[in-house]
Structures are given as structure tokens and as C-alpha cells.
Batch of 2 targets.
Target 1
Amino acid sequence: MARTLAPGRRSRIFTLDVDSGERTLVHESTDTLYEAPNWSLDGSSLYVNGDGHLFRLPVGPGSTPERIDLGDLPELNNDHVLDPDGEHVFVSCMDWHIYRAPLAGGTPRRITNDDGRLHFLHGVSPDGTTLAYIGLTADAEGNWAPPNVFTIPAAGGEDVQLTDDEFPDDGSEFSPDGLWIYFNSERARTVPGHAQLFRMRPDGTGIEQLTSDERVNWFPHVSPDSSRLAYVSFPPGTEGHPADKDVIVRLCAADGTGIRDLARVFGGQGTMNVHSWSPDGRSIAYVDYPVDGLHD
């Protein structure tokens, strides 16, 4: 079921210039819990999910989200990525499958297979031919194995498993130059939940660790020129990527060096789960969830 706002809570959608630090409040709601902004290819709009639907939101102060008719789909979760053609969107739904749907309205098409796996979309290759997703599988006793990174043709077809180990992996996203898949993983953890940022080649080889600090780092998003990463950094000791945490939106070079803080927000889950860079590489978009009387 889609997340909702508790009384006294707001969801606020911001854009942020990563060099100047200038922040713009695009929309604020006390009714709908919005999550996970993407940008349109022309930079004029954001796409966010809320109440199990996808919305288009013009960039600029005081804008109002407009619901997009994606046809007969199950409720959406917060994983949606634009097709590079600019006319379709790939979405994860609450039936645990990934679909491709036309943004102008029409019939969606399911991509993922009936393999007993839960599928969580995070990335699409620059040429639009391949999706990167996180897959979860349960054993006969109903115990969930650690999530791993998979790819699948965007037209549907055979899955390819890229990681297979005892440590959770998540947030798999292609770099715009097509050379890497970035992801977060606990494979170097010192305590349970201590995720850091990694990258690997699109065939699963050449895994490199990018960050190594006391915080818990999730959802690396690669700038359009493939030179920088924006990501969500949780407090030490956090397990998973929960909501309602004091998190830091951070920026670093694509190799993990030069880390700096962009914004301190009350959020976490939903703040920046999917690719959130503007097409010109100047700005990111994110969501926070302040509590009345406790946050600005």
C-alpha cells in the first residue's frame, strides 16, 4: 500500500543547484506523500509518485502536480525511471513487477518474468535497451535471501544476475556513459546495515568500492556527464533505508572522492530513491517530510 502522511506532516519537493547551493521549493503538500523525483528530458518538469500514482510537476515555485494516466496498472511504489526516448516511463508496482508505460496515456506492458522474485527498478541503460533492478527471492521456508543486482532487456527477456553474495545490494543505476553500474552494498560492512557506494562494469565484473566512512550511504545517482554522484547518507547504525531520519544529501566525484554536503533533511525513504539530476547537470531534486513544530 502506498505511503501516506501522518497528521502534522508535510512532503516538500525541492530543486537544488549543486554548485551554488540555491534551493527552490517547488511544491508542498499536507495531503499527499510524494516521493522520488525524476526530471523530464527537457528539464521543464519533475515526475514524482504519490498515493500509488505518477504525477508531473512543472519546475518552479508554487507548481501543482498533475496525475498521469498510466492505464490499468497496480499501485506504484517509489521506483520509476524515464525511458531515454522521453515518451515512456519504467515503473515498479506493488505486484512486484516492472512495467513500461507511455507518458501520454495508453496500454502499459509488463517487462519482468513470473520467477517468484520481487523486482525493484533503479536504472535504465543510456540506449534504453537494458534495465537494472534489485531482485529478492525467498526460499521454501519463506526466508528472504539478500537482495542482488540483476539486468533484463527493456523489451523483456532473460534476466542476468550480476551479484550473488551474502550481503544486501541495492540502488543499481547505469552511468550515462554506459561504462558502469553504480550501487550501494553492505559487502564491506563492519556492522549490519553499514552500506557504502560501489560500482561495477555492466557485466558484473570489476567491482570497486567508492566510499568508506562511518555513515550509511545509499542510492548513488550519476550526473549527466558521468562525473559526479549525488546520494543519500543515513546516520551511523541505520539498517536499510528507512523513513523519518535526519539524512544528508551528499555530492562526490564519480570515483567517490571529494565528498561534500548539499542538504540536511528529515527524510530518507522517498527523498531521492531514483535518478534525480536535471538534464543540464546543474541541479538535483529531492523530497523531505518535516514534522510541524520540529522542522523548518
Note: The chain is about 0% helix and 45% strand.
Target 2
Amino acid sequence: MENQIRFDSVSEYNAFNQHETLHPLATVVDLSKAEARQLKTMYLGLYFVMLKGVACGDLRYGKQHYDYQEGTLVFFAPGQVVGLENELYRPNGHALVFHPDLLHGTSLNQHIHEYNFFRYQTHESLHISERERQIVMDCFAKIRYELEHALDHHSRKLIVSNIELFLDYCKRFYDRQFLTRETVHKGIIERFEALLTNYFLSDKPGAIGLPSVAYFANELNLSTKYFGDLVRKETGQTAQDYIQAKLIDVAKEKIFDHTKTVSEIAFEMGFKYPQHFSRLFKQHVGQTPNAFRGLQNLN
């Protein structure tokens, strides 16, 4: 039977790592002090951030594998299932773990969804420099200090504020990573453009429907969140806007074909309802498809 464990509370995770529970909703764990373990899958009911110190097995999330090394941050949100493919390993590094209930009534709770890296795949992890690692450890130390401090009416606010500060630093570090991996990412954008062009040259629009961000992310072996962030960083547009711009370009060309009605073109491009095509076309072009076709006849 597969070795697996659920972590629905901070105390469960602390007990698993032989770590004292200082606060019921948050913990910072030095994983080097934990015993060697054999584990294949973990169900996470908590927010997890792991800063790995040494290689300790292949992490699997979905179909992806990532051998995470020193200076790597991996993020997981509640509800994810994570696997470790290793018979026996001794953990190292540090983990920040907090329960969603910690955020209730705080400003962070209102925008925790904006930290897209909690939904990235493991091969899209954050690789940090030594200086960035020092900042991470400083943030962890501040959170740990509040956890070790006697609980008072400031505790929760300060813990959450320091978690938010840490996450904001991670946003900055990811922005830096997007820049330092610009050559790799440009290759991904070129592949995205080719996939998008081929999509409209195929019979997929009629068979599958309108192209989605999730479809291209999957084709490129990326998570939807990471793919969306990458496209925005490289092009200044959201992935959805990029797809719609291509769709309109293709539609403009098809409208020159007077053997087809606007409705036929709409269905051919993947729209279920022609009026939706006309509405989107007018939003982007400023004219309805029929008006645009009529204007071309005057030229």
C-alpha cells in the first residue's frame, strides 16, 4: 500500500517533523532536525513553502518531476497532493507552513490568490541567489520570533504581516527569475505563437471550441498560472488577450471570404453563438463583422 499522509493542521505537520507546536496556525520548521522518512504522497490542507537545503528525492506534482537542490523555494496551496519518489531520505532545509484560518479577517486573505506561485508546478520553482536566501531566512526568523513570543493581541497581525512581507519578496524574486530566464521564455512564446497559429489552421476550433489559456499551458507543459505570468511579463498582455488578438486577426482574414456567412465563420472559429463572435469582434475592431466586410468592399 502506498505510504501517504494528510496534513490538515499545523500540529500534525510539526509532530511529523518532531517539532514543537508554538502556534496552532503557523510554524517554521528546521527540517534538518527531522528523522529520515519514507513517504510517497502528501495531501496538503495547509499553505506550504519549502526552502530546500540539499537534494532529498524527486518531488512529483501531477505528472511533473523536479529534483530540487540548494537555493530552491517550492510553494503549495491547500488542496494539493504532492509526492516524493524516494525510498528513504533525510530532509534538509526549512519549511514555512500556515493554516488558511490564520488569514481570516486580514488584508492578506483578500489577495492571497494573487500570489500565483502557489499554483505553479514543481519544475517552475523559484531558484534564489545566496543573497536572496539570506532575505528568506531573515523573514523566517522574524516569523519564528513571533511564534516563540508569548501570545498577545499583536501576535497574529505581526505573524501575518511578516508572511506577507516574505511573499512580496518572493514576487520580486520571481520577477527577477523571469528576466534572467528571458531567452528560455522567448522560446516558449515563439512555441505558443506557433501553436496558436496552427490551432486556427486545423479543425480544432470546430471540434474543441475556442482556444483557452489552459489548453496552451498544457501543450507547453506549464501550469496555467505560470504560463499566464510568463506571457504577461514577455508581451505586456495577458495570455487571454494575446489569444483574442490572434483570433481577431484570423477573423479579419476570414471575413474576406464572401462564400461564407458571418455565422459560418463564427462556428468555424469555435464560437457556439454567432452573436458572441460579433460582440467580441466589435469590441476589438470598433465595427461589427458585417460592417467590416462592407467597408472592405468599398476599397
Note: Residues 4-180 form a domain with the Jelly Rolls fold (CATH 2.60.120).
